[in-house]
Design brief:
Blueprint (H helix, E strand, L loop, with lengths): L1 E6 L8 H5 L4 E3 L6 E3 L3 E3 L2 E6 L4 H10 L5 E5 L1
Antiparallel strand pairs: 1-5, 1-6, 2-3, 4-5
The structure holds iron/sulfur cluster.
Iron/sulfur cluster (SF4) binds next to α1.
Length: about 80
């Protein structure tokens, strides 16, 4: 499994994560920031556990995020 986290309040809504990995990210119509699909919020960080097969797409989202708020680790 992989734990994905996003420090959402720093998101600038650039859409890069959605372009890299539309399965896991979308832009909110409410505030224009990206949503980690399935994520649960705790103290400003959203997190979700996902299957290992998402790793390549997550890596693309992570490296293209200009404010470096997407992280993940294998657990
Ligand atoms: S790539 Fe980063 S800054 Fe851009 S929308 Fe996604 S989380 Fe937000």
């Amino acid at each position: 499994m992989i734990r994905v986290v996003q420090h959402r309040h720093k998101c600038i809504g650039c859409n890069a994560c959605v372009e890299a990995d539309a399965f896991r990210w979308r832009i909110s119509k409410n505030d224009g920031k990206s949503v980690l699909i399935g994520g649960i919020e705790k103290k400003g960080w959203f997190s979700v556990l996902v299957d290992d097969h998402e790793e390549k797409a997550l890596e693309q989202a992570k490296v293209h995020c200009p404010v470096n708020i997407i992280r993940f680790e294998k657990i």
